[in-house]
Automatic annotation (TrEMBL):
Keywords: Cell membrane, Membrane, Transferase, Transmembrane, Transmembrane helix. This is Phosphatidylglycerol--prolipoprotein diacylglyceryl transferase. It is found in: Cell membrane. Coiled coil: none annotated. It is a multi-pass membrane protein. GO terms for molecular function: phosphatidylglycerol-prolipoprotein diacylglyceryl transferase activity. Its EC number is 2.5.1.145. The keyword Membrane applies. The chain crosses the membrane at residues 20-40, 60-82, 102-122, 129-148, 182-200, 207-229, 241-261. Its main location: membrane. HAMAP family: Lgt. It comes from Pseudopedobacter beijingensis. Belongs to the Lgt family.
Amino acid sequence: MLLNYITWNPSESLIDLGFISIKFYSLCFLLAFLFSYIVVKKQFEKKNISIEVLDKLTIYVFLGTLIGARLGHCLFYDFAYYSKHPLEIILPFTFNPFRFTGFQGLASHGGGIGILVSLYLFSRKYKMNLWYLVDTVAMVVPLAGGFIRLGNLMNSEIIGKVTDVSWAFIFVKEDMQPRHPAQLYEAICYFLLFFLLYRINKERKKAVGFNFGFVITGIFIVRFLVEFIKENQSAFENGMFLNMGQILSIPFILLGLYLLFIKKKQPETVASAQRNKK
């Protein structure tokens, strides 16, 4: 019977030399930023904004994503533990016993908030139009999210519930039961959202806030629905009708719908954006 399913047991490392290893998750994280950089660069070139500005923006968004995602996990999903071990929020190892763990535990909701904060700080410092930045970066959020979920798949984490569908994955590192490949479902949906939005941006002029509204509505509707076939990430979610991921998704969905259908539409402007200085 198990032969009908996909046995999933990949190595977590692409290269492992003992003293150093390159993990697939880290590679997916880097690919997310690399392809996002390329897409945003094309958008900046259309507005004649300098590459130096993009490089600085990349640093802001990278740090905002990492800090926000880490804090989101520690506060929303494992507060009981990290409230007693606050240093482990910012340190990549545990003390008792001492063990290098890396930054295990990142929450996409926290990452989204971190990106918005980083864009606000960047717009204030470099006198750029905040809505232009938000809409431009929003284009690549589903692209990056797709790569991150592929990294989760390679780590056999954020698994789905037990099922008997023919495409079920048997996660050998988990419990050898056929489960929904929830990470793959999300990755496919996010990539589709990216290509759809990229096509829309090529074919018509968009209003301020459209990209951001489209992205957060699409991503968090997908997240809300896929959570029904995911295993809960924390024990306290067991028995809840909606888990923490779904509860946190609702405000993002409502904000996205407001931007798409209620907010007064205005033409896009980058009047306050810095221009390339020769």
